[in-house]
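#structure-requests
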Amino acid sequence: MTDNKKDTMEKKIKRLSALAMGCLTVLVLLAAMRLPKYTGQAKEQTPVSGLELLDYYTAQAEEDEAPAEHQIRMELPAGMTEEGIEVANDALRQLITIEIEGIGPDYYSSHTLLGSSDHIDNLILGGERGDGVIEITMDAVYEVQWKVENSFLYLDFVSPRDLYEKVLVIDAGHGGGQPGAIKKGIEEKNLNLAILLELKLLLDRHPNWKVYYTRTEDADVGLDQRVQLANKAQANLFISIHNNSTEDGLMSKYNGTEVMYDEKKPQEGYSSMRLAQICLEETVAVTGSLNRGLTKGNSIYVIRTSQVPVALVEAGFMTNEEELAKLNTTEYQRVIAQGIYNGILKAFEEGF
């Protein structure tokens, strides 16, 4: 066999191998789009890639089937009403969870799911929480709007900035296994949360504001989750609530309120520095606490990585016995919350 004939034969073999692999890939993909039939035996839950099904069904759909006025349209069991559906939106994780009664393990392979996968990072059908659970992970924070009509579930994901006049993120520092400073048996995480809950009572009075809280209970929340909640919600401002202590952690006479800002970002206009200054002035005006000024905070992760105006309020010193006693009272926590709230009002008056 000549070298030319040998080369030609090798090329044909490679082409045939590539064609065979392509066919195998298509078959595997089609098989993945069909869940195994329930046999009555115990089965291991296998999450199905909803993005593959969504793109597949949408590509196959006729033009008049496409949910033109909505982002997602899912076929429901006959007679299903809104009472049989629960929709939860976990903004911290950008996770929307939908629970639908009466859906079995093979439901998704024979009922259409149409729409756009834009802004959806992941879509899982079924899985550990049950056959009727749909988990949608978004690429940002969205408010979910949904309705049931003519045996279809319609879903839309809307930016909070398009629905509300103002969007805020309020963070209670530490939490869960991260207690922060501990003095006289008092944990900082609990003080921070108590102040946030008092502030929540004030903020939730505004129906045209959307306020996202990093935590409203004693829970572990990652630093990146906290700051990305603000970034992905495109918040007007981000405030983190903490309490201070001396560097060596020893009890001392140091007391007062200080606020941290990002000194490496522009300081003009609607800046981190201006927001911090407003929060400091308004908080000490109400509490009567010593004004300890602003502190550079770019070394702090949630400050450095925030893409929105951010201020970290150190309400008081836990290493000061008198101030610690005040910080541990509901009355003083309420006063601190009022000061931060006044700061938010003033910031919005200035155009934040």
